[in-house]
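Everyone, study these two lines:
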Amino acid sequence: MILTLLLAAATTLFTLPDIEVTAEAPELQSSTYRLIYSITEEEIEALPAVSVNEILTYLPGIDVRTRGANGSQADINMRGGTFDQVMILINGVSITDPQTGHYTMNLPISTDIITKIEILEGTAVNLLGTSAFAGAINIITRPNTSAPSPNKTSPSSPSPYPIHSEGPSKVNRKSIESQSKVNASLVGGRWGLWDAALSGKWVLSKAWHVASAQYSQSTGYIPNTDYRLANLYYATSFYGVELQVGAQYKDAGANSFYSLASQDQYDATRTAFLTARYAHNWGRWGLEAQASYRANYDRYEWHRGTITNRHLNQTAAASIRAHYASSWGKTTLGIEARNENILSTGLGDTIATPQGIFPLGKNRFNVNYFAQQTVSIGIFSAALGAQGHYNTVSGNEWAGGLNLGLNFVKNGKIYLNANRSMRLPTFTDLYYHAGIQRGNISLVPEYAWLIDLGLQYTYKGLALRANGYYRFGRNIIDWQKQDDGLYYASNVTKLDAAGSEIAISYHYGYWLKKIEASYTYTKSFTEALDLSKSMYLDYLSHKFIFRLEHGIWKGFGACWTLSYSVREGAYTTSAGDVVPYTPVLLLNGSVFWANDHIRVALDCTNVTNTRYYCYGGIEQPGILPRASMKVTL
């Protein structure tokens, strides 16, 4: 019903909606040499996590800042960037919110259907779109319908799985069809946590289907952090056509979420999306087409029970891309038309004819056109590309990049990437004018050049990846506190970031399923910017994660994670005191028993009941024990 209402609203409110999509842009970072960290379905199942937000906290280089019980709302940051600079994708399709990154993680999927999560780091705007300024996260639900070639990625998706499959070969059909399953899971825990999900994957000779339904609720770990949500999701592929549709219903107490001045805020959101994709090859020629739509409605209350603001943002796109493969490389040309629209009681310009309850609105239309040439000679590969971007508000912009790679040994690669990216201001950046925040309609797009040098190496059960980068940021958008106590949106003239990331892991059978250590370092450089007065530019300078997954005895196993993080910057308490962030050490664990059909687990997060803050003056949850059971047929 949620999806029906939102789609009906879309057809009556405007003509051409939007979404940014990964399939429409050429792959400027080589599929072989793009820096990717991934976590598999089996690893996800072992983690003490019931949501995508929690899963991401265990991954290197990701800064997850949560508000509310069980991450009922979360912001995702990467490489010292803000939550508006990270793109979130499902099966390679962006669901990023143009109103605010606070709502980008409104994901209508259960963790039981996730096949893989990939972390794409860098400013490859040409591949992922203008919101992938600091990086992107791709959540894959599609089954692995064919065995991928080593180090090979579909040219239109960051996933190592093909965009479509016309059915597996006779050789691997049996193993592929064995992925078909139905799951029923139930989780219960402290603070009135209940989470129930029913999901299934069906892989047939000529098609596959993925579906899930989930309901979750909690009374909250402090007053007014209760929530309830429901998710519905379905995806299918048949003879080259891939479809997916999802919807989420969420109500959440928002104690101090947007300001410490009110502890009884409330946020209700309704989210839906629909995508369709088709790809076909004729010998050396290939053609891909995609259409997509996403809508998000929110009702915000400064005092619970009293409506303050309502917004409905809608995004839609249509694109086409052609490529030609020759003996000396691959040539790609494409174009995308995208529209972004918002109707609101608080954001946008005055509408001549108000739309229902909405007296304000704004529409911006975008056209992206691009070209890329890739070359591969022996152990050397290169990709050169450029993108033009036209927006009805900011005019013409451009992006581009050069990526070089070298297979220096059989299982080892080194790469050098240089890319220019840009990001448009969100509707909140431009128009929000309430409480202690003041938007700025004169904001211009952000820009960055990224230089990235990295190494990847694998040998049997050993995997190593390391990289160093420098990002030259210009016109970065921030909200700075002024003498009147208000935060004003503005473009920071210069904000650079440098850092390094290293991860090493090893696995060896049942007794040592995985042991991994990772470390991320980030340093920001700016001119005359006080982080204590910044609303969003504080960042993780150090993040260390140790993860151990091991067997115990006859179906018993365990997974432990130890993390240590240091956040730069400070926050202002409700009393007006400026308090620096302090380092945080967290221990999480899960002990489980499983066979082919039943899995029972006892999880615990924040085992030491550490008191800490990662988002302003909002205290984070203490020790949270949970019990779960999953039945698989």
Residues 287 and 517 are 42 Å apart (CA to CA).
